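Dear colleagues,

For the upcoming journal club I promised to circulate an example of a predicted protein-ligand complex. I picked one with manganese (II) ion because it came up in last month's discussion. The inputs are reproduced below in full, followed by the predicted structure.
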Amino acid sequence: MNKSDTSISSDTSDIALTYVLPPLPYAENALEPVISAKTLSFHYEKHHKAYVDNLNKLVIGSDYNEMPLEDIITGTAARPERNAIFNNAAQSWNHTFYWQSLSPKGGGEPPSSLKQKMEESFGSVDACKKLLSSMAVSQFGSGWVWLVLDGEKLKVVKTSNAENPVPTAMKPLLTIDVWEHAYYLDYQNRRVDYVNAVLEKLINWEFALQNLSKK
Ligand code: MN
């Protein structure tokens, strides 16, 4: 951690905090049995909350106070002296995006316009899902797998730790968290079973389509 990242105010109790933990879009038990309420409560209330809390402490008095998360992520990416701010801003953003990438009514067939785009880019919906699964499994250590729009085509990319496509020209459409904390209580070392169950039962194609349609 860089010295400038550790200049944390000793008393923050009277300061209105800039970043808030967004509410989950569903109940903590809504993704069972694929993701247990226990996993979701730890993941949201402990991990996600800690990233937001840390970010609030780190940005006080810095140039990044009150900036939109995307601007912080882009502004601190690939700047080692801003690594702590980057990690906590990106992980705050990534988790909010991940909760939206899942739905209790997810899985199944993508909406037709997304399906057509998937067929153009990968050959079939199944080929896209297989690629999401294999890229998730081959990510070494902690990270994320993403469906993105790159130019006119869809792509699957993976990132390490807190990294995400936000600072790039690629538009993120959905993500799956492959940090061990996302699945270890339910699946232990079987990341592939977690990812495949998410793709079959929870993945929110509607959210991907909304992102695809955004200017
Ligand atoms: Mn996570």
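Two points we might discuss: Residues 112-213 form a domain with the minor pseudopilin epsh fold fold (CATH 3.55.40.20). Confidence is low (pLDDT under 50) at residues 1-10.

See you all on Thursday,
B. R.
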